[in-house]
C-alpha cells in the first residue's frame, strides 16, 4: 500500500518544516495557512496549496486555534487527523470529541525559540522524539499511518497516553520555561551589574524564554495542573542540601545512554510500555514495529 | 613602561587558556601546575614552567585550594596577585589578608562545563566580561596592571566590589546551577518517559550541571548567603501569575543592548559606578580608561 498523502494545516516553523521535509523526500504533500506569506514559502518548497485535506491531516497551529482550525476547510471523511500541539489533554478532549478514533494526538519534541515560516528547517525532525498518543479509542492502523509520517522525516516515535505526555512535558519543557522566566526576572531585579556579568549559565538557563510569550503562556496555562505538580517537585529538590542537590542533578545529565533493540507487537499495551520505559519506535514492519528501550545493564 | 610579565598558577581550563592567549600574543608568560600533564600542555603552547612568580601573578586554582596555593612557590615581593575564582568575598578575606593592597580579586565570566588542561582555548576570553575588584585598600596602579592583562586577551573589565560581585554572580551563575540541578533531578523523579522526551528546553536548562560537582558545590557553598538571597528572588518570581511571569522573563532576555561610550577617571568611585550601571572598561589610556555603559535612551 503506498504511503497516504499528507496535508499540513499551519505552515509555520513546525508545520512548514514537516511539509518541506516530506516534499523533499518525494512524498505528496499539500498544505494550508491563513497567512499568504507562509503559503508562498511552502509552495516554493514543493507543497501544493489547497483547502482540501486528505490522507494524514496534520494540524500545526497554536493551541488556542486548534479547536476551530478545520472551520472553512474540507476534510476527507476517511482522513486520519493528528496535531503537533505541545499539550495533549485539551486537544484530545476537543478534537477527539469531534473525530473519535480518527484523531491521533501527536507532539514532536523539537522546535526552537524561533517561530513562523522564516524558521522552517526540513532537518528539524531528524533524531527528534515524537510523542504519539495511543488512547483506548485510538484506531491502531491510523496510529501507524501517523507514526510513518514521523519516521519518514527522521523522528523516533514515543507511544504515550495524553495524560502521560502532559505530565512528562510539564517536567521537561513547561517547567523549564517557567524557571527560565523566573531566573531572568530575578536577575533583572538584582540589577544592571548582574545582567552585565551574565554569561554561559545564565544564557543557557534563560534561552527558552526568548520564545513568543503568547505561545509559552498558552502552553503552561493549557497544562496547568501537571505543570504545578512538576514545579512542586523542582521546589522540593531545591530544599535539599546543596551538595546533595548538585550531585543528584549531575548524575541525571551525565547518565549513560545505552539502548537495547526491541520488537513491539501492534498492541496498545505493548506500545505504551515502550514509551513508559523511556524507549521509542524507529521502524514499522508488517506485523510489528521495531524500536529500543534504555539498556539498564550498562 | 613595558607590560609586566604574567605568572599563572593552575594551568587548567581558565589558567591554561589565559597563559596560552598571552603567549600567543607575544607576552612573556610563565606558569606552574601541580599536574605534570598540565605543565607539559602549557609548555607546548609557549609558557615557561617555573615555581618563581613575578609581575602579575594569576591564581587559577579551584576555590578550596586558593588559600594555600602559594605554599612552596616563590613570589616576587613586588608582584601584584590576582585570582580567577568564582566567589570573591572569601578569597578577599584570605588572600587580601595575606597580601593587602597587592591583591586584586578577579573573575572572568567565561569557562564552560568542561574543565582541565584538555579544555584550554586561547580564545576563551574574547568578548567576555571580567569582574575585577576595587576595594577600599586596592592600589589602583595594580588594579590597572591586572585590567591590562584582561584587556590583552580580549575581555572587557567590570569594576566591582567583592560583595557586589558575589551578589551578582549568585543571581546569574550560582542560582542557575542550582535550578539546573533541581530541574534534572525532578525530571528523573518524573520517570524515564519524561527523560526520553527531553529536548531543547531541558538540555539548555540543565547543561550547566554537567560541570564537575565538586567545583559547583564549592562555588555555591562558598557564596551561601548571596545564593540563598538570589534563590529567594527566583522563588518569589515563581509565585506570580504565569502569564505575568512569562512576559517579565521574556522582556529581560529580549531587552535592547545599546551602549554609550564613557571616559572614566582613575578613581575608585568612578570605576565602581560604571560597573553598577552595567558597563565595562574596554581600554586603558594615560590618565583615564575608556568603556561603555548601557544606553537607556533606546
Can you offer a commentary on this structure?
Chain A is of the alpha/beta class. The first copy, chain A, has 2 domains: 6-160, Rossmann fold, CATH 3.40.50; 165-239, 6-phosphogluconate dehydrogenase C-terminal fold (Orthogonal Bundle), CATH 1.10.3660.10. Helices cover 44% and strands 19% of the residues of chain A. Chain A contains 11 helices and 14 strands. The first copy, chain A, has helices at residues 13-24, 36-44, 89-99, 140-152, 162-190, 192-197, 200-206, 213-222, 224-237, 242-253, 268-276; strands at residues 6-9, 29-32, 48-49, 52-53, 56-59, 74-75, 80-83, 103-104, 106-108, 129-133, 156-160, 259-265, 280-284, 288-294. In chain A, the strands form 4 sheets. Chain A has a 6-stranded parallel beta sheet, sandwiched between helices. A 3-stranded mixed beta sheet of chain A has the order 9-10-11. In chain A, α5 packs across α9. Chain A is globular and about 55 Å long. The mean pLDDT of chain A is 93. Chains A and B meet through α5, α6, α7, α8 and α9 of A and α5, α6, α7, α8 and α9 of B.
